[in-house]
Amino acid sequence: MEVVECEYVVRGEIVINAQRLQEELQKKPGSHPSVEILNCNIGNPQSLDQQPVTFFREVLALCDYPTILDRDETHALFSVDSIARAWQILDQIPGRATGAYIHSQGIKGLHDAIAAGIAARNGYPCKAEDIFSTDGASPAVHMMMQLLSRSEKDGILCPIPQYPLYSASIALHGDHFVRYYLVEEIRWGLEISEFKKQVEDARSKGITVRALVVINPTNPTEQVLAEENQRQIVEFCKKEGLVLLADGVYQENIYVAHKKFNSFKKIARSMGYEDQDISLVPFQSVSKGCDGECGKKGSYMEVTGFSTEVREQIYKVASVNLCSNISGQILASLVMNLPKEGDESYESYVVERYGCCLKTNSINTFAYWFKNCDELIDFKEGGHTSFEYGRYGNPITKVLERKMSELERAETTLFVSSGMYVSCAVLSALVPTGGHIVTTTGCYRKTRMLIENELPKRGIKAVVIAPADMGSLKRALCENKVNVGLMQLYAGVPFIANTSWYDKLSLSAFYLHGAMMRSCKFYMQSHVA
């Protein structure tokens, strides 16, 4: 019954249909208008051409094939620090075999590296024996839900909106999904009164709330919890005796300068609470962050604040699955112990991980929304932010430019934030003093104002013609040494609809005579579609 009630739409009907279409395209190319299916149902950046970090891949390759470590040619193919790290990791693996079974909790030496990284981040000690490695964060969540489930009268407090893993896992184990609601009006923040209300309501129905799930940064609402909110949550869990399940898999994906990730363990320790005061289980995964190593399934949870008897039960559940994969554990240890300045891999690591995975300037063009002008003014004065994008790294512009160049068969493509910027950049950079341009009466108003009011001050002459008036265009180009033909291909009645193939050939001829043609192709494509 629990399986029937369980729903996980992230991998549901739409994905099944997409797979069917992909198979049809492979069997019979051209059977559908699309030539490729892009699966966007789940974060999976490497399937969309994000490249893995070279350092990570070198270490994994050397660990999987250690016989090449002693060969001279290996030093010409791999960085010195990758080789050293591979030796260090192999020394921690029984038999130096990445294909062997290992301890059910994970490899102690790799957990030492993870614990050291956690301690450095939090500023508080972390013990390797508290780390449990899992094949992705989802199995860790399932494990805790299974352990917390005693009867159908138990419940887990979860956020709405939420990532459907939690509702699905709770349904599978026969517990009650007790909702608490994030508040959109305070940027999807939390109100502690909402926790109290939902717990009291659950108890009135005979439900025992066992744990509280908090996703920070939030998924899917993409917010970073305020530190004060986190303190309230810790205090609430301590008072109510709830296990705090802290999903922090997007902790690296914070792109606003005034926000930072604080783990709940750090918050709890800063409040003076130790292991005996609160039960806490944070989840982390290499599938997220800037790396997107989804297929490697490298994850872990840090289990603190449980008695020896309970920890034995956690280990028992882990041992039923034998062990998690070694490659994922290696990656998790690498992410928590990255190349440092002075290492051979450091420069390439920085370029690949931060130069190719995220770019703040791109995000700022669409990361915010405002309900009214007051909020916009407040934002401009530095007092207001909205979406903070606690999710995957965003591709820098060169990834988009490369893709667009391939699609348009262009030599190069320049990606900018607006069409007005393009017009200003082209006119300012390419039209010299004494030059001439041609535009149409259908040109954008702001661009037209620039042409008519600002360019004459620079000694640039402009000729304005009616849309699709090829005769006037020809005369203007012949009578003047035109540097730029600034043609808007969408103006009331689209220019393209009034332009014959002969006229398009004429435009090409003007280009061959030295006039550069700039068209607003975005709108042309929109009209044709």
From TrEMBL:
Under the subunit heading, UniProt states: Homodimer.
Biochemical pathway: Amino-acid degradation; L-alanine degradation via transaminase pathway; pyruvate from L-alanine: step 1/1; Photosynthesis; C4 acid pathway
Main EC class the enzyme belongs to: transferase
Residue ranges of domain Aminotransferase class I/classII large in the record: 96-337
Its recorded name reads: Alanine aminotransferase 2
* A GO term, aspect molecular function: L-alanine:2-oxoglutarate aminotransferase activity
**What Enzyme Commission number(s) does the record list for this chain?**
2.6.1.2
The answer to whether the entry has keyword Transferase is yes
Tell me which PANTHER family the record gives. Answer: ALANINE AMINOTRANSFERASE (PTHR11751), ALANINE TRANSAMINASE (PTHR11751:SF29)
* Function in brief: Transfer of C3 units between the cytosol of mesophyll and bundle sheath cells to maintain a nitrogen-carbon balance in the C4-dicarboxylic pathway.
Q: Which cofactor does it need?
A: pyridoxal 5'-phosphate
Similarity field: Belongs to the class-I pyridoxal-phosphate-dependent aminotransferase family. Alanine aminotransferase subfamily.
GO biological process entries: L-alanine catabolic process; transsulfuration
Keywords, A to Z?
Answer: Aminotransferase, Pyridoxal phosphate, Transferase
Instruction: Decide whether keyword RNA-binding is in the record.
Output: no
Q: Name one Pfam family in it.
A: Aminotran_1_2
Show the InterPro entries listed in the entry.
Answer: ALAT1/2-like, Aminotransferase_I/II_large, Cys/Met-Metab_PyrdxlP-dep_enz, PyrdxlP-dep_Trfase, PyrdxlP-dep_Trfase_major, PyrdxlP-dep_Trfase_small
